[in-house]
Amino acid sequence: MAERFRNMQLQILSIEDGKPLKSVKLWLHPNKKISFIEQFNEKRLVKQEGENIQIIDVWSSELIEVSATKFMTPSAFIFLYENNLFLTFLNRTVAVWNLRGELVTSFEDHLLWHHNCSTNDVYITSDQDLIISYCKSEAVAEDGTVTPFGSINAREIMTGKCIAKLSANNLSVVPRGNSNSDSKRSLVQSTVSEAMEDVTALLYNEERNEIYTGNSKGLVHVWFV
């Protein structure tokens, strides 16, 4: 084994006092890059380039391997500690996995807008039951041509079911009144289509039931849902 593998020594430390709790050895191929090492509760996820993903229980040393063709290296993770699941982001797609390496949910019509799968425009609710993302969409212009705009999609994490979709197709702009108080302020007006262009940040206020988005033009929009 020494010829084919090298070991990496990892330690688990107590957050409270920094004392070592357990020492773990990882056996790695010496000539292959480490794609990621992630710790999620008692499970450690290890992936090397071209190799299967290993899910290791750090207390029992139980090992589960998942084929590299089934689980490709994602661009980002979001761990769902309440549900003992995790989200992966790869090539604009989102998937939900359990800690046995099994696919739980994949989302149709939920293609993220940004190539780099940035999680800045992805929001997970505090109950970890909904994912709200800025996604690709197709809006129809007045002349009948299809113009690409983004949409805000909300889906159930466990089922993949779409429960809401905000896009230029299903929203209209409500004009502001021209009261004296409004006339004293300088307001930037945006159409729905303009507000849905190149969103770079998204946040959902669960108490007020409002979505806040910011775009590359530096504008912030509030969506009442």
Which key terms come to mind for this protein?
four-stranded antiparallel sheet, 17 strands, DUF7899, elongated, 48% strand, mainly beta, WD40/YVTN_repeat-like_dom_sf, 225 residues
Shape: elongated
Poorly predicted ranges (pLDDT <50, ≥5 residues)?
A: 172-186
Distance between the termini: 58 Å
The beta-strand count equals 17
On the 0 to 100 scale, the average pLDDT is 82
User: Which bin fits the share of residues in helices?
Assistant: under 10%
Describe the structure.
The structure is a single chain. The strands form five sheets. The chain has a four-stranded antiparallel beta sheet with strand order 3-4-5-6, with no helix packed on it. A four-stranded antiparallel beta sheet has the order 7-8-9-10, with no helix packed on it. The protein has a four-stranded antiparallel beta sheet with strand order 11-12-13-14, with no helix packed on it. The chain is elongated and about 65 Å long. It has a domain at 1-70. It has helices at 180-183, 192-195; strands at 6-13, 20-28, 34-40, 43-48, 53-57, 63-66, 76-80, 85-90, 93-98, 103-106, 122-124, 130-140, 146-156, 162-166, 199-205, 210-215, 220-224. The N and C termini lie far apart (58 Å). The longest helix has 4 residues, at 180-183. A hairpin with a 2-residue loop joins strand 8 (85-90) and strand 9. 4% of the residues lie in helices and 48% in strands. Residues 172-186 have low confidence and may be disordered. The chain has two helices and 17 strands. It is mainly beta.
